[in-house]
Specification:
Number of helices: 14
Strand content: under 5%
Largest sheet: none
Oligomer: single chain
Number of strands: 0
Number of domains: 1
Structural class: mainly alpha
Helix content: over 70%
Distance between the termini: 26 Å
Radius of gyration: 19 Å
Length: about 300
């Protein structure tokens, strides 16, 4: 759903950065309503349109910012393309799980996955980068893990959607930080790498007469054509806003989107909120409060 957090360049929050980042998170929060409107379109087709129509949007932004030279330099680097191919594969998996979850009535699990994500990122830092965890951070991770166990016990199986979103986004964010390229240029490079696959799939659909661009009504076609704006605009708003904010501020703001997804799932999509979720979600929220307080004290 978002670019990994860049290191802020200022010790204070910029009003412009707040506006940009909050706008991005609000747009992501409303994204389930858009995806639900496309519930009759296969998730793979939605992903293909997100890729194809993101290219012109991202390209225009790079041209406006005067950063196209960075992109051309990256396209001439086999190492850069290889790294971007891995992040592109991970973000496409993340998008696929998310779209399917919203369309098939698992928006609550999607919210859970994005709530868990910052805690999983801390775990990755400790496991792969040998970063030391504060006691409060260890407690937060343990509480989140216990919440997942509660849901697993109640359902008789692990919450695959939530963990799939957490794992794919966590790995994406980790690898993205290693990519020596700006967030806007990196996103453009990723969608360019995915473009041939997306065009090939949509071309096959057109040849066999099964694609929604041919069979769908005007409303569906309009929604698919807007997939690039829906995908690229919040991502780029966030990428530029995060540069002007402290890491602790971003750490708090990132809960806006999953909270909106949670409220939409319960009050708009009317997804069931049973006893296990009534226990697990407050545990996750408590873990996030502990994590946020720890992050604030560190900063």
């Amino acid at each position: 759903m978002t670019d990994p957090v860049p290191t802020p360049t200022k010790s204070e929050d910029s009003p412009k950065g707040l506006i940009l980042a909050i706008s991005a998170y609000l747009l992501w929060g409303f994204l389930p309503i858009y995806m639900k409107a496309l519930a009759h379109v296969p998730a793979v087709e939605v992903i293909a349109h997100r890729v194809v129509w993101s290219v012109p949007v991202a390209g225009l932004v790079l041209w406006w910012l005067g950063r196209t030279a960075d992109l051309w330099a990256a396209l001439r680097s086999p190492r850069m393309i290889g790294m971007a191919a891995m992040t592109a594969a991970l973000i496409s998996v993340n998008w696929g799980i998310y779209v399917w979850a919203i369309q098939s009535g698992h928006a609550l699990e999607a919210a859970l996955g994005y709530y868990i994500n910052p805690l999983f990122s801390i775990f990755l830092g400790a496991a792969l980068l040998k970063e030391r965890l504060a006691p409060a951070q260890m407690a937060a991770i343990g509480l989140a893990a216990l919440a997942v166990l509660v849901l697993t016990w109640e359902a008789g199986q692990v919450p695959v959607v939530a963990l799939g979103l957490t794992l794919s986004w966590g790995a994406y964010a980790f690898l993205k930080k290693q990519l020596p390229l700006g967030p806007n240029q990196g996103f453009m490079l990723e969608v360019l790498i995915l473009m041939p696959f997306a065009l090939g799939f949509l071309g096959w659909q057109a040849a066999t007469g099964v694609g929604q661009m041919r069979l769908g009504d005007a409303w569906t076609v309009g929604l698919l054509l807007s997939a690039g704006v829906v995908t690229a605009v919040p991502l780029m708003l966030y990428a530029n806003g995060a540069k002007l904010l402290r890491l602790s501020t971003i750490g708090i703001l990132q809960y806006i989107a999953p909270t909106m997804i949670f409220l939409t799932a319960v009050f708009v999509f009317d997804e069931p909120f049973g006893m296990a979720r009534a226990v697990a979600f407050p545990m996750i929220w408590a873990a996030l409060v502990i994590y946020s307080l720890s992050l604030y004290r560190q900063r």
